[in-house]
TrEMBL record:
It comes from the Bacteria. This is Small acid-soluble spore protein Tlp. InterPro entries: SASP_thioredoxin-like. NCBIfam families: SASP_tlp (TIGR03090). Pfam families: Tlp. It comes from Alicyclobacillus mengziensis.
Length: 76
């Protein structure tokens, strides 16, 4: 039997994902700052591109939180 759709913790789960992604983004930026002179341009570009994808993901997750919060208020 399928489990019921329990979305009660979605906002908190997404918020944790945002926090983790932001932490990874900051760590990557700090790494590049600390080691930029030791890195080849391709590796540096890869990290910069990955951080852009992280920023896009964070933006999407923030929109998802808004949607979840809106859906939660509509149920009440």
């Amino acid at each position: 039997m399928a489990k019921p759709d329990d979305r009660s913790d979605n906002v908190q789960r997404i918020a944790r994902a945002i926090d983790n992604t932001m932490e990874n983004l900051r760590e990557a930026e700090d790494f590049v700052k600390a080691h930029a002179d030791e890195m080849n341009s391709s590796d540096k570009a890869d990290i910069v591109a990955k951080n852009e994808r992280r920023r896009d993901a964070i933006s999407g997750m923030r929109e998802e939180i808004k949607d979840e919060a809106s859906a939660s208020h509509q149920k009440d």
